[in-house]
Write a structure and sequence with these properties.
It contains 4 helices and 23 strands. It is of the alpha+beta class. The chain folds into 4 domains: about 80 residues, conserved putative lor/sdh protein from methanococcus maripaludis s2 fold (Beta Barrel); about 100 residues, Elongation Factor Tu (Ef-tu), domain 3; about 60 residues, Beta Barrel (OB fold (Dihydrolipoamide Acetyltransferase, E2P)), CATH 2.40.50.100; about 100 residues.
């Protein structure tokens, strides 16, 4: 009897070992917790700072500019002299050209004389017409001249007046042409010591600091050439190139965070403007992208970003969606289940499939509308072979 019991116990033990050997082992999973907190969805791009109002001071005339002694960062008062120019003297004339200019001046003098004679002739004709009209009117009162003849005299007087006006205009035009030719000839005929031009001072239109010196060395510059760039580094704004599909979610007043600019704190800002016109930009991968510029005002106290300057790089995070007290779960815990989202909830060494509704998501967290208690453990990065009710153990 004892032998049978021993054999039975051995058989049961062997059967238990076989069952244990072929029993599926619990799957190792990584767990994460549901939590309540702040949800943020942001558009993140690189941006750069720029002076809000910059002024490029240009040469008002062609001339030789004196070497500019101002340097980048120097303060400039409004109306202060930032550059000095001397107008370029005209080239000297040779003997032949000077003779041609002199002959041209003489011909213009003759034209003026002829115009003056024509004016005198028109004046005499006007006086004659006026006298004849007075005589005709006196005879008409006595009945010796018909009214038709008086009307002819008035028309003749009006014609002579217009001829006199035309003659005076011709005389004025001839006088101006002669004055122009005479002035040019006099400039070329001046002695070298008399031909020194007067210096012209270029003044700053605003009070600010020098951003760039565009013409540092002395030299001849044409009219309109940029000399120096001015602005106020204390009035900065940030410009970021955003994809048009991201920019469509942003409006004026959207909060912004500015990070990785070199300082210890994250600066706050606010979108002032999303420009209405987009442009095409080729990415580093050679893909054409439609982008648009967003202009951002820095709302942080100036003492926090005093080290920032014009053209500094910053990392821009535009907070397009913010929710306090949201139910958050890691994005890695979600997977599609039909038209909804699903995740595995860890309960008593097993996982249970639960379908949830996602309000929004970012790169880390998903905001759920389904009621889940904070601290509920879910499976992060679930294996595709994991099934509802499967035994698991935490990794």
């Amino acid at each position: 009897m004892k032998t049978k019991l021993k054999w039975l116990a051995g058989a049961l033990l062997l059967l238990a070992l076989i069952v244990w050997a072929f029993m599926p082992t619990p799957t190792e999973v990584e767990l994460a917790s549901v939590r309540q907190g702040r949800f943020e969805r942001a558009v993140q791009e690189d941006g750069k700072t720029r002076v809000r109002e910059r002024y490029v001071v240009s040469a008002p005339l062609t001339g030789r500019v004196q070497r500019i002694t101002l340097r980048q960062g120097d303060s400039v008062a409004q109306g202060a002299v930032v550059a000095t120019l001397w107008p370029v003297a005209p080239t000297l004339l040779d003997a032949r050209t000077r003779a041609e200019q002199s002959a041209h001046r003489d011909s213009l003098q003759a034209v003026l004389n002829r115009a003056q004679a024509a004016t005198a002739r028109a004046q005499a004709a006007l006086e004659q017409a006026r006298t004849e009209l007075h005589r005709s009117e006196a005879l008409a009162q006595q009945g010796f001249v018909s009214p038709t003849q008086n009307e002819t005299g008035r028309l003749a007087l009006r014609l002579r007046e217009q001829e006199q006006i035309s003659a005076r205009h011709d005389e004025d035009a001839a006088r101006y042409n002669l004055a122009q030719a005479t002035a040019a000839l006099q400039n070329f005929a001046r002695a070298p010591q008399e031909a020194r031009p007067q210096a012209y001072a270029v003044r700053s239109p605003v009070a600010g600091r020098v951003l760039r010196v565009l013409q540092g060395s002395e030299g001849v510059t044409p009219a309109g050439a940029p000399l120096i760039e001015l602005g106020d580094p204390g009035a900065l704004e940030v410009v970021a190139d955003l994809l048009t599909e991201d920019a469509a979610q942003i409006t004026a007043g959207t909060p912004v965070e500015l990070a990785h600019w070199g300082g210890p704190t994250v600066l706050t800002g606010r979108v002032r403007l999303v420009e209405p016109g987009a442009f095409t930009k080729v990415s580093a991968l050679g893909i054409e992208e439609q982008r648009v510029q967003a202009v951002i005002d820095i709302t942080a106290p100036p003492a926090q970003w005093r080290a920032l300057g014009d053209g500094f790089k910053v990392e821009v995070r535009v907070l397009v969606q913010v929710e306090e007290g949201a139910t958050l779960v890691p994005v890695s815990a979600l997977f599609p289940v039909g038209s909804r989202w699903g995740m595995f909830v860890f309960e008593q060494e097993r996982v249970r499939l639960r379908e949830v509704d996602v309000v929004s998501r970012n790169g880390v967290d998903a905001w759920l509308s389904s009621p889940l208690a904070a601290g509920t453990q879910v499976v992060a990065y679930p294996d595709s072979k994991l099934q509802d009710g499967a035994r698991v153990r935490a990794r």
